[in-house]
Write a structure and sequence with these properties.
single chain, alpha+beta, 6 helices
Length: 137
Amino acid sequence: MDLQVIQNKIYEIRGQKVMLDFDLAEMYEVETRRLKEQVKRNIERFPHDFMFQLSKSEWTELIAICDKLPEKITHTPVSLERISGYMNRTVKKLLDKTLIERTIPENPNHPAQKFRITQRGKMFLELLKTKNIDHQQ
């Protein structure tokens, strides 16, 4: 999944940068209910404030400002906090393996910092696609 797509799925709610359960489930290619089951089953691995339930008014407000969210949903989404820590660890691993690079390498903490996939990263993605096709056949 493209890093820009992931960044577009991060919202600020209650002063925290969060991802919604259905977006995270989509990233991991699982059903939302399965993601929630796994989190509940392994709750001891997560900080106590890892997730919270959005209120109906928070969800309504989020829909109003983000036209790409589904208006009709059967549950109030769970917001997964501490995503920034997870994202930072993931980004660090990708940087260490030179699969991505910073757009402003001289200032890693710049507010406009973005990342782009390297040639090595593109080759790695192609390899993954090839292996995935082989597994499906």
